[in-house]
Write a structure and sequence with these properties.
Structural class: alpha+beta
InterPro entries: IPExxxVDY_fam
Protein name: IPExxxVDY family protein
Helix content: 10-25%
Number of strands: 10
Distance between the termini: 43 Å
Shape: globular
Number of helices: 2
Order of helices and strands: EHEEEEEEEEHE
Oligomer: single chain
Radius of gyration: 21 Å
Strand order of the largest sheet: 2-5-6-9-1-10
């Protein structure tokens, strides 16, 4: 009996996108406003945040679909802080100790210091990507911004928003 082997290397191509890391201390809505103003985009808050690992982390997301160029722009926060109460009972005292602990989670744990990611669902030429980066770096409230090679990401499945 003949054995047939299917090779699916070309069927499952990796999605092409440009990923820009942004370091700043701005609130998400303020950063979206400044990007809209300086890049000529129209990012708007999605009705629901991105929720990963059963409510362990919730990340705000702003999105704009450019129908002329068939490009989707997404601004997503990388840091999620959750405050939990830690109950410890010390039997040697008369009072219960209740402490609040803040836990920090990242959307992409390999980039812990990045505040926001700008994901553009299209692979731009080097000159267009450089123009976008230069426009972002001209915003005085942004400390730095740089491109990230998506092929080197370990947790790239967290960047699938749909």
């Amino acid at each position: 009996m003949a054995v047939h082997k299917l090779i699916l290397d070309d069927v499952f191509e990796e999605a092409l996108y440009t990923l820009i890391a942004i370091h700043c201390r701005l609130e998400d809505y303020r950063l979206a406003y400044l990007l809209n103003k300086n890049l000529g985009v129209t990012l708007s808050r999605k009705p629901s945040d991105i929720d990963y690992k059963n409510g362990q982390g919730s990340y705000s997301i702003f999105e704009w679909e450019d129908h002329k160029q068939l490009v989707t722009w997404s601004l997503v926060s990388n840091i999620c802080k959750i405050e939990e109460e830690l109950h410890q009972t010390d039997f040697t005292s008369l009072f219960d100790n209740q402490q609040k602990v803040t836990k920090t989670f990242q959307l992409l744990p390999e980039h812990k210091t990045v505040n926001y990611f700008l994901k553009i669902d299209s692979e731009f030429s080097f000159s267009k990507e450089k123009y976008i980066l230069d426009s972002i770096l001209k915003i005085p409230q942004i400390a730095t911004a740089y491109s990230i090679d998506s092929s080197e990401l370990k947790s790239k499945e967290n960047l699938i928003f749909n």
